[in-house]
């Protein structure tokens, strides 16, 4: 049996697949006049709203449906568009439908194969409700690539990013020290910062060119070609 001594984990949403695509399709479906506004900007704003509202959901002040509607209403409002509740529900419904039709970024398989060929544990740490995240994992056919025992969904384990304990929990479960573990994710606040705090090596997959915080200098990559070169260098 292989003795694993290192691990590389990925975030799911917007790291392994393009989360903007199902979102853009859902908006198109509602035939909203978004004027000259950029869907990507509205999308980024809805992700931010989602993170803010997540706390309220965790405290029980907001239902999951409420959160999903409210993040849309807030982000559209920021761009001068008023959404009715029913429009927000309509977008969310189509968004979920199209999330069942997502596909992996082109070079994900190549990256995972590289890691596995080098006896490195390869896994996923993702925030969200278990069923919802598993549905996307299924749509992406990720179980063909990544063993189920290395897929960690926040609601299933009781810790969620940006709580660094989620990383410490995974370290214990896989029995690999934090300083031998890499985490690749697209969010500065949810991925880079807590991975650092837990002693992991974060890689910021910043292909949407968001602004990061200060005080930390993660490896920054904006495409999978560069990620693969980085991993090859790490491995050698
Ligand atoms: Mg993400």
UniProtKB/TrEMBL annotation:
Q: Does the keyword Oxidoreductase apply?
A: no
Molecular function via GO: hydrolase activity
Q: Which keywords does this Swiss-Prot/TrEMBL entry list?
A: Hydrolase, Magnesium, Metal-binding
Magnesium among keywords: yes
Query: Which top class of enzyme applies to this chain?
Result: hydrolase
Q: Which Gene3D superfamilies match?
A: HAD superfamily/HAD-like (3.40.50.1000), Putative phosphatase, domain 2 (1.10.150.240)
EC number(s) stated in the UniProt entry for this protein: 3.1.3.-
SUPFAM superfamilies, alphabetized: HAD-like
Entries under Pfam families matching the protein: Hydrolase
* Cofactor list: Mg(2+)
Q: What is the designated name of this protein?
A: HAD family hydrolase
Species assigned in the record:
Alkalihalophilus lindianensis
